[in-house]
Amino acid sequence: MTTPAVPPTSRRVRLKPLTVVPVWAFTLIVAVVVSVAAPGDDFYVWLPLVLATSIILSFVLQLAASEKDGLVSRCVLTLCGSLVILAVTTGVLALVH
Predict the structure, then answer these.
(1) CA 10 to mean position of chain CA atoms
(2) What span, in angstroms and rounded, lies between the C-alpha atoms of 87 and 51?
(3) Average pLDDT over residues 10-36
(4) How many other β-carbons are positioned within 10 Å of the β-carbon of residue 9?
(5) For the segment 72-87, what is each residue's pLDDT rounded down to a tens digit?
(6) Is 4 left (phi over 0), alpha (psi -120 to 50) or beta?
(7) Under 8 Å CB-to-CB from 34, ≥6 apart: which residues?
(8) In the structure, what pLDDT confidence band is assigned to residue 8 with cuts at 50, 70 and 90?
(9) pLDDT at residue 26 greater than cutoff 70
(10) Which of 11, 21, 39, 58 could bridge to 78 as Cys pair (CB 3.0-4.6 Å)?
């Protein structure tokens, strides 16, 4: 008896949260740290650096997953989510300061 092969779509479904959610969590945590720690309007300098770091982290996780199918869609999903998190953070901080 042989075990049936796992269909590629189920692997892709399992792979998306494993490579997307950690980047979103990292972005959210670092955005909160920047908003608390940055004095005055320095958050305008630090939040783009957070986005750059999340882009690098996204690519590292995608390459570590070594799954070429759906790479672009996972990268776009990860980076769009990080961009939305940082846009909301920037908007809130701009209103507060």
Answers:
(1) 22
(2) 10
(3) 85
(4) 10
(5) 889 999 999 999 999 9
(6) beta
(7) 43, 46, 47, 50, 89
(8) low
(9) yes
(10) 58
